[in-house]
């Protein structure tokens, strides 16, 4: 059977996409440079939260196959690139994985092929970085092959919206490229939205994440002064969100995490500064406010311990939930890391519990894992609820704790329970 699509990069983004395409009856090949990931998938085992082993086994039964063999890219009618785009030293995206993946496609490019970039990046990447590399062999985008950008909007852990029912934006290098991409996704995605071009599709993704980043910064800044003024911000947000139009609720927290929100807006501000010479002030301010939240939590922890006549140095501080969002195992950019590091730097005895994190790599053994959270909160001088996983009985934990600092606004009020 000919291959309908090769998905390049089988992570949080690529694998759910491969699953939907396979479910729709497409013959899908997965390409990754990580041999271990490929072997696990072929054996029917998943390495990401949103897919179970049974899901992967079902994909394999449906014809999905993973490979590290680059020569097989040429078998596919479409190539979709979902490789990581971390931040580089200078604050822009590190495009090395994208470039490597594009070069691999370029070596196997055939006339009529559709190439789509899904990795989040700055506006212009598809046209200025991807297109020249693909055209190096002589084939021309929009003439000999189709080229498009389609931003990935996956929300790991979201039970309601997945790859199939989240509308898919596509922007083509030419209108025919957009049509080819829309036709491709239309088979397994409920709604396809056409952007004017690749730059508009790239920027749409950055606008979405910048919007979130800025609104989180807004409530984080408010959290600080509402605390000083004795105003319950959680109650404020609850009241405000009753407005059926013109308002969307965002909540404060100990900082922003994940691969997207703390990182993607930088692609835009870095690009605006590099090309136009002036700052994207909203992004830079949001970055400043959100990145200060772990230090603010440390300050509040210190103040609460002070009420009990305890110094932070030598006190046992238990962190509950160290992933970047609830109910998943992904720890990328989690604010729990700077929070723990700052507590350790001030001499606290840092402990942690997380049902999804059996050993906390970034803290290299400096934070001791507590096996039983209920016993842990009773023994610690202070507990910080960093991430509210569904496994936590927050009422019980807050009641049992010596002091409980709730950064998520979910614990019932009490003399020893405090909110961000
Ligand atoms: N995770 C999310 O929630 C999310 C949401 C929206 C957008 N994105 C964007 O999607 C892109 C991919 O992110 P992810 O979370 O899936 O990353 P990931 O780290 O989960 O997976 C990426 C995979 O790509 C593989 N890879 C790296 N270089 C490769 C290459 N040259 N050829 C083939 N495979 C290669 C890696 O081995 C890994 O398995 C990023 O640009 C990210 O910004 C991620």
Uncertain parts:
none
The first-level CATH class name of the largest domain: Alpha Beta
- For the secondary structure, the number of strands is 14
Radius of gyration: 23 Å
- Fraction of residues in helix: 25-40%
Approximate shape: globular
At CATH level 2, the architecture of the largest domain is 3-Layer(aba) Sandwich
Strand content: 5-15%
Overall pLDDT = 95
Ligands in the model, by name, code or SMILES, are:
nicotinamide-adenine-dinucleotide
CATH superfamily of the largest domain: NAD(P)-binding Rossmann-like Domain
Quote the CATH topology of the largest domain: Rossmann fold
Number of helices: 14
Largest sheet: 8 strands, mixed
SSE order: EHEHHEEHEHEEHEHHHHHEHEEHEHEE
Task: Note the gap between the termini.
Answer: 57 Å
Index terms:
alpha/beta; binds nicotinamide-adenine-dinucleotide; Rossmann fold; 2 domains; eight-stranded mixed sheet; 420 residues
Q: Which helices and strands appear, and what pairs or packs with what?
A:
Elements: E1 3-8, H1 14-23, E2 28-31, H2 35-42, H3 53-61, E3 65-67, E4 76-81, H4 96-108, E5 114-117, H5 125-135, E6 146-149, E7 168-172, H6 175-186, E8 192-194, H7 198-229, H8 233-240, H9 264-276, H10 281-291, H11 293-307, E9 316-320, H12 336-345, E10 349-353, E11 368-369, H13 373-379, E12 382-385, H14 394-400, E13 404-406, E14 417-419
Parallel strand pairs: 1-2, 1-4, 2-3, 4-5, 5-6, 7-8, 9-10, 9-12, 10-11, 12-13, 13-14
Antiparallel strand pairs: 6-7
Helix pairs in contact: 4-5, 7-9, 7-10, 11-12, 13-14
The structure holds nicotinamide-adenine-dinucleotide.
Nicotinamide-adenine-dinucleotide (NAD) is lined by residues 8-14, 31-34, 37, 82-85, 97, 100-101, 119-120, 152, 154, 156, 259-260.
């Amino acid at each position: 059977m000919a291959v309908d699509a090769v998905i390049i990069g089988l992570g949080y983004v690529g694998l759910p996409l491969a699953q939907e395409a396979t479910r729709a009856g497409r013959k899908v090949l997965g390409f990754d440079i990580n041999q271990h990931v490929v072997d696990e998938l072929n054996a029917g085992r998943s390495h990401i939260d949103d897919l179970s082993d049974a899901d992967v086994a079902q994909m394999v039964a449906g014809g999905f196959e993973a490979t590290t063999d680059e020569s097989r890219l040429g078998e596919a009618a479409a190539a979709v690139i979902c490789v990581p785009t971390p931040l580089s030293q200078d604050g822009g995206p590190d495009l090395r994985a994208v470039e490597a993946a594009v070069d691999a496609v370029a070596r196997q490019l055939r006339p009529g092929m559709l190439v789509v970039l899904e990795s989040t990046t700055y506006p212009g990447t598809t046209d200025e970085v991807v297109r020249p590399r693909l055209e190096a062999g002589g084939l021309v985008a929009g003439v000999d092959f189709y080229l498009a950008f389609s931003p990935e909007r996956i929300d790991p852990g979201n039970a309601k919206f997945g790859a199939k029912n989240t509308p898919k934006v596509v922007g083509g290098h030419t209108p025919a490229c957009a049509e080819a991409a829309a036709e491709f996704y239309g088979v397994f995605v409920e709604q396809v939205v056409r952007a004017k071009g690749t730059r508009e599709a790239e920027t749409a993704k950055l606008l979405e994440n910048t919007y979130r980043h800025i609104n989180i910064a807004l409530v984080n800044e408010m959290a600080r002064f509402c605390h000083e003024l004795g105003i319950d911000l959680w109650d404020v947000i609850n009241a405000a969100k009753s407005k059926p139009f013109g308002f969307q609720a965002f909540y404060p927290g100990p900082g922003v995490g994940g691969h997207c929100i703390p990182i993607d807006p930088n692609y835009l501000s870095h690009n605006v500064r590099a090309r136009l010479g002036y700052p994207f002030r909203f992004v830079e301010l949001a970055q400043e406010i959100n990145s200060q939240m772990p230090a603010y939590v440390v300050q509040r922890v210190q103040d609460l311990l002070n009420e009990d006549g305890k110094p932070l140095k030598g006190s046992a501080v238990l962190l509950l939930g160290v992933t970047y969002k609830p109910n998943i195992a992904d720890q990328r950019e989690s604010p729990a890391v700077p929070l723990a590091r700052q507590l350790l730097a001030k001499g606290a005895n840092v402990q942690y519990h997380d049902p999804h994190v059996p050993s906390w790599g970034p803290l290299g053994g400096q934070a001791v894992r507590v096996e039983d959270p209920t016993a842990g909160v009773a023994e610690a001088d202070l507990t910080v609820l960093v991430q509210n996983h569904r496994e936590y009985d927050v009422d019980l934990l807050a009641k049992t704790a010596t002091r409980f600092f709730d950064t998520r606004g979910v614990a019932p009020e009490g003399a020893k329970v405090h909110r961000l």
